[in-house]
Structure prediction request, 183 residues.
Amino acid sequence: MRWDALFADMEAQLAAARESVQESEVSERLRTDFAGMELAGRLHSQAGRLLKVDLGLPGSFEGVLTHVGRGWIVLESGGRSSVLALDHAVFIAGMDRFSAAGAPAARLGLASALRGLSRDRAAVRVYPAGQQAAAALDGSVDRVGKDFFELTLIPRGEPRRQGNVRGVYVLPLQSVAAICSVL
Prediction:
C-alpha cells in the first residue's frame, strides 16, 4: 500500500512539473507574439471602444474608434470625426487588454483619408503638431499630394466662397497632429 501512495505522489509531481513547463512555454509564446505586434494591429482590436488620445500641446481627443489606417485613426464623438496622426500620440487611454491576432494590415495612409475630405470639401479644423490648440487652422482641404496637402483658410462657420478665402496653406503631412470635422 505504501508503494502505491509513493508512486501516485511521484506521478502527481511529474504532472505538475509538466503543466508548469507548458504554462511557461505558453506565456513565453504570448510575450513573443505581442512583442512583434504593431500599434495599428493593437488598435484594430479596439474598434468600437471609447478612447482618449493625448496629442501633447494640441490637447486630448476622445471618441469611439471607428477606423484604423497606416499611421492614423478616426474617433467619432457627438457627430464630429477626428483623424488623429499616431506619430504625435503621447498616450492612448481606454484600450482593453485584448489584442487581435492576425489583424489586417492597415493600407491606407493619412493622404488617402485627406483625399476623401478634399472630395467632400468638408469644413475642417487642423491642429498642427507641437502647437497649442489655439493655433488650429479652419478651412477645407483642397488638394492632397504624396506627403503634403493644401488647406484653404476660411473663417469658422462661413461657407466656402471666393470672398471668404483668407489664404491657402501648404502643410506637410508629418506636421499635422489632428484634423477634425467642424459642425
Q: What stands out?
A: The radius of gyration is 25 Å. The chain has two domains: 1-36, 39-181.
